[in-house]
Amino acid sequence: MIEIPPRIRVRYTKTGRIKYTSQRDNARAWERALRRARLPVAYSEGFSPRPLLSFSLALPTGCESEAEYTDLRFGEAPDGAADAVVGNGWTPESVTELGHQLGELLPGGLDVVATAALEGSGGSLQEEVTSCFWIVEVTGMSAAQLTDRVEALLSAAQVPIERVRKGRKVIDDLRPSVLSLTTEGTGSSPGTRRLLAELATKPRGVRPAELLAGIDPAIRLVRASRTAQWIDVDGNRHEPLTTDGRVGGAAAEMATERGR
Fold first, then answer.
1. Radius of gyration, CA atoms only, the chain
2. So what's the pLDDT on residue 50?
3. Which one-letter DSSP state was computed for residue 219?
4. Do both 135 and 254 map to the same domain?
5. CATH number, domain at 225?
6. Distance between CA atoms of 238 and 252, rounded to whole angstroms?
7. Residues 153, 129: contact at Cβ < 8 Å?
8. Same domain, 134 and 247
9. Do residues 141 and 112 both lie within one domain?
10. Which domain, by its residues, includes 213?
11. Residue 232's pLDDT band (boundaries 50, 70, 90)?
């Protein structure tokens, strides 16, 4: 039996075939792993209680990620119902052990990278994340054409794109959400080119497919991977949890370097 803190943050990757599952399927996978691990997960109140899991920004179906996050809340469990207890005697090693245990129970493609205890009540991951960094591989035009389209987007005052919101088509300006965008050589598949992009999450997140629509509708998405999610604290950019287990650790490298 191990002792655990009331709240834990987990960083994990989502790669391979599981990228085609939805955010709801992702949540269900975590719920199953927690049940199988016999952990004393805290539940919401009301007519239909749910496990208190808080996820970072939903990953678009079909995209991969090197930086996904889940906050887990724990409470008291019925006698004999858990192989872990919530208390003050936990250690960083026990939290790491818990991460390894959960990683073994998650489906292939969801791999735990780091775990850490959280202090206080904390805010919502979805509200705290201010931008995401993406590697996007595309095809459909030459390197020169792609560079021209990227430069045109960055120099434009507005970039209108069509989106579907609550079942209705609306026109949004993409340009304020594109914080950085560069081309960088070939992709991992023959005939593809690679884009590096940092996209703001407010007032609404931008999907890779929406970014490409703003660059040129002729471009076809081949692969997209989210490599970082960033929280802005007093003008400094931090990760919700670094790969070495620091909560809110300052970014050691620029996002563009992470993609290389």
1. 20
2. 81
3. -
4. yes
5. 3.30.70.3190
6. 9
7. no
8. yes
9. no
10. 130-258
11. confident
